[in-house]
Amino acid sequence: MFGLTxxxxxxxxxxxxxxxPTVLTYEQVEELGRELDDLRARTVARLGDEDREYxxxxxxxxxxxxxxxxxxxxxxxxxxxxxxxxxxxxVSKILDNMEIGHNVMHGQYDWMREQGxxxxxxxxDTVCPADQWKHSHNYMHHTYTxxxxxxxxxxxxxxxxxxxxxxxxxxxxxxxxxFLLMVFFEWGVMxxxxxxDNIVKGKRKWSDLKPLLKGQVRKSGRQxxxxxxVFPVLSGPFFLTTLIGNASANIVRxxxxxxxxxxxxxxxxVQTFTVEETREETRGQWYLRQxxxxxxxxxxxxxxxxxxxxxxQIEHHLFPDLPAHRYPEMAPQVEALCYKYGLPxxxxxxxxxxxxxxxxxxxxAVPPFMVKSQATPGVIVERRxxxx
Length: 388
What we know:
Layout: E1 3-5, E2 22-24, H1 26-46, H2 49-72, H3 79-104, H4 130-143, H5 174-183, H6 185-192, H7 196-200, H8 210-234, H9 239-265, H10 283-292, E3 296-297, H11 301-306, H12 313-318, H13 327-340, E4 347-348, H14 350-363, E5 372-374, E6 379-381
Parallel strand pairs: 2-6, 3-4
Antiparallel strand pairs: 1-5
């Protein structure tokens, strides 16, 4: 929501002068909402064989990469072959988590009425139980997107990612915490629903955690058994190299998922909101919050597939239950609506967006008095009809 221009650390932020904010009337926002509803309806009307065949192809590719990756690790005495195995298994895990798991658990393919693609029963290849992720992500994050003190994805309970979060000396470690979260991202996602920070503050009881911890131990135990015991044992004399290969593939997946997700939520220009601003929010206002609280990443079709189409985070936040491979065709229409209403359409290349994210991580680590704050919101919304 707010831009920071450090007076003494120019590499940490954009020093361009802030633009004048866009002001939208209540009526304009509601009309924007109706146009987005129409876009959604047109897309839903087209769902069918094309979408079914697409997800089948992705699943087939994911399984193929997993089989190839695990097989190639049986040849550790040829380093290029072993590395290819690690790469293939990494791709498999990325596809499973992002283009398949994330999207299926959003209910994007529930209309197919296929048990294996049903959001209520699907389980993915990561340590976080699907039901806990659906609560912390599908419900908490997508309902309260970018609302300070409501959307726990802002900082994941450990990072300072917005000026609206009060600075404490603890945040001097912001870059270190972010690096560790990136490397061990699947574990961070698993622990997210525990709300450990609220336990420390006394807002949540330890007794509330028992069912969550039971599910986490069960799921993470299966994952550890599969990747770090069963498959290494099956490789016989290559136990150690298979163990290292599996761990490496998990880390590659973690680094990629973290980077894509943070690029979609925290680069410069993404706006945040207060609880008061979003109270009694209309459908149009909810849409608008998703649009200006998200960012896209430009790239090739393959890049979009490997990101789970979360490179179209704006479209995903607008339509989380529509098949994600539809987002690229919807994006130009969403961008046109942004232009029509004078709204920013935050997009850029991967290195631009991730550089902006890490700049913010470092910038918000230091005390506020050490940086120059430019508290200028990008969009101001009139929350009530003119007649009122």
